[in-house]
Amino acid sequence: MQTFSTMRRNSTDKRNLRIFFLVIFSIVYIAITDIYYFLPPLFGVVYVIAQEKYEEQSFGTFYFFVPFFLYFEASKGLPLLSTLLFILFSFKILLPKFRKFFGYSKIFIPLFIFYAYFGYFAFLYFFGWLFDTPVPQFSLLLALYAGIEVFLIWIFLWIL
User: Fold this and answer.
1) Rounded to the nearest 10 degrees, what angle do helices 62-76 and 82-89 cross at?
2) How far apart are CA 64 and CA 123, in angstroms?
3) How far is CA 120 from each of CA 81, 87, 109, 123, 149, rounded to the nearest angstrom?
4) Transmembrane region positions (predicted)?
5) Are 136 and 76 in contact (CB under 8 A)?
6) CA-to-CA distance for 53 and 35, rounded, in angstroms?
């Protein structure tokens, strides 16, 4: 009983537990999206949350996001570590340039979700062309997923 009482007072532990359970939920949700194709895989939502945490210099949350991205790649048949390379490329090269020109407004969150999906597939096509490997087929279902996730990201950012 004392363990729970000390955790109530420590906001860091509560925050880490909340992130841990969100990651567990998202991994189970990814498995469900393989069964029901109308459910979006939440790639854009996790990308935007990772971007928000990166801008806050909260790098501890990436330890929770790495298993999510690896499981996402494995369940969808994508190349290993491709999402992490895409995120590294985006956060280190493109995001600082974007923020330099447009600032830190939350208005751009829907743009980042569409960029997460379409930029990631452009990234896969580029590396597929570069290394002559097969690339997954592009589908307009991704636009539907991105549209649903624009709505969901406002809810997730409100919770976190």
Assistant:
1) 130
2) 23
3) 12, 9, 16, 5, 15
4) 20-39, 77-95, 107-131, 137-159
5) yes
6) 30
Q: What is the average per-residue pLDDT within 1-18?
A: 63
Q: Using an 8 Å Cβ cutoff, are 22 and 152 in contact?
A: no
Question: What value does the CA radius of gyration of the chain take, rounded to a whole number of Å?
Answer: 17
Q: Are 63 and 52 in contact (CB under 8 A)?
A: no
> Taking 80 as the threshold, does the pLDDT of residue 22 lie above it?
no
9 touches 16 (CB < 8 A): no
Helix (H) or strand (E) holding 22: helix 11-35
Tell which wins on pLDDT, 110 or 9.
110
116-129 pLDDT tens trace = 999 999 999 998 89
